[in-house]
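Q: For a teaching session next week I want to show students how multiple molecules come together into a single three-dimensional assembly. I've collected the sequence lines for a complex. Could you give me the predicted structure tokens for the whole thing so I can convert them for display?
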Amino acid sequence: MIKAKASVARMVGRLSRATGKGGGTTLPGRVLLKLDANAIDKLGARLTDGTTLISATNGKTTTASMLATVLAGAGRHPVHNRAGSNMTWGVATALTEQRGSEGLFEVDEAWLPEVADRLGPRAILLGNLFRDQLDRYGETEALADAWAGLAARRAGRTSFILNSDDPLIADIGNSSGPDTIYFGIEDEAQALTELQHAFDAKLCRNCGHELTYDRAFVGHLGHYHCESCGMRRPRPEISATGITLKGMSGLTATINSPEGSVELDLPLPGLYNLYNALGAIATARQIGVPVSESVRSLAGMKAVFGRVERIRIGEVDLSILLVKNPAGANEVIRTLSLEPAPIDLWIALNDRIADGRDVSWIWDADFEMLADRVGRVTCTGTRASEMALRLKYAGWPTDRTEVIEDPEAAIDRALAQSGEQLFALPTYTALLDLRKLLADRGDTEKYWEG
Amino acid sequence: MKLRLLSLYPDQMNIYADRGNILFLQHRCEWRGIEFEVTRCGPGQRFDPANYDLLYMGGGQDRDQKAVARDLIETKQASMRAAKDGGVAVLAVCGGYQLLGESYELEGETIAGLGLVDLKTIREPGPRLIGPVSISVNLDGEEKVLAGFENHGGRTRLGQASPLGKVIHGHGNNGEDGFEGVREDNLIGTYLHGPLLPKNAWLADHLIATGLEHHHGERPELEPLEDSLETAAHEAALKAARKG
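A: Of course. Below is the structure for the complete assembly, covering every listed component.
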């Protein structure tokens, strides 16, 4: 029965793409789950070589793509929701449309417990929890509680790979049993000079006392301990030292593990991508790929759809960097601050459901850091005026900032005014719009073919 | 002229980008040549109400909010009462608003509030009240509109206290009686975040004028600013509320 239902669902997907209705990355799964609420369990049973799940507020798609690259290097080609559609229907779509004996899925934070209970994964990588889409998820503490419950249910059956630098994630190690390993950053030179405004872990998960930070690297990710109960950050088995950030072109670091130390040359920028790489490397090790092999594969990695992407349009190099919450935006801002000034920007703020209807997060991101480095700025999207207002109060030059609500007119204006390099900072649905726009004009291939 | 703002629990009660409200006040003062001073007041710290013209408290996660509720009563209750009675401007948003009242019942537990205004909040079964919101408000004889975003599990009901405004679009205090927020003397409590002030420059200026009146004894005529982006952001927030 499940075979027949899956083939109906596949046909719907082909039709949807043929009629140009869009990516078709969720529709087959939606149809399938309507036909059979337990389709994920049934199709998942085919993944006899095991399944790996990845969740986090920031970096799910990139980390999953890194792990897929590493596995491909080892000759393994898992069923993978690579278009980033990460709710149950996205997982179901991948299960419907791809064949394989191994699974690799990024899963939305709120959907992770359900998907894990259905698939019974052999490994779960948990990267970070930041405030994000407050209208949908409410609170990071509540998600951390739900994940700890999942870890307790799966203890002994699932290997957990946890970020030691996020106290909300590291705490899950108290529930997940002995098959748990940690990854983190050990390079003190990379610490932020002051804690950022959007700081999401303030209280010890163990006793409720305020945490003490010796240093923070990205948002609340860092080295912390509790003065009251003595809780300390777990020592990571997989760690990075000797980090050099090279702006948009990437970074280098030494990766230390029980296998020894190797040099990583990562073509993706920012400490946030180093955390993604560490998570992928640690997970790969748990499922049978040595660290040195992972590091070699990552060196040849291409950027994932939209997360960091460069497109040549006429005389302009367009770099696209997704922004969707304060912690992610702060890392993009930090990466841009290493680029030569003046920095020309196209910023697209939408408030559709997939972006989060609540746009308050832009007031938590530290746009102030770029105030004296920006060139020309074009704001667009459904909340373009509020974006421009935020930048005004961050001290950006209002006489070089324009508000153009229509994204196409805005990108044309930005391209025409820009120097050789233009940075596009879209929220999620604005990114989809931008990709479609560029694809329709022949500037890039359609994303579901990527 | 000088405006002295006390930021209550900036590290605990800041979930909806509450610093945006303070940033907005700060720039609008400085652009007019009004000196602006922010003092942070966190857990365990006491304050002298005579030293401040405007008090701000934002929203927090449940866990932070419970800890803050205890600390407010232990270390700040008398000062908060004196500030309100003495005409200090108070703006409390979301969780901060809930804590101004008598109590907050949640998961079988009753958290005592400051009791500054006659209202109670209960976390009732049913969905959180989430979405863009607009309300009509009359602060000084003129009907105006506030736009923002609300996201609260608690339902607030007013006793003898007056609401801040009437719901045009959205849920308001409890999704039932059509009221939003609370207003008494120079105190304002509201569920509207987003943050509230950047979307409603007129309210920011109202608070600045009220605070300066408290400090200098006379309500100043504030110099108008170039507000085209502020107006456009207000309009966009109203449009979002209309669409629901």
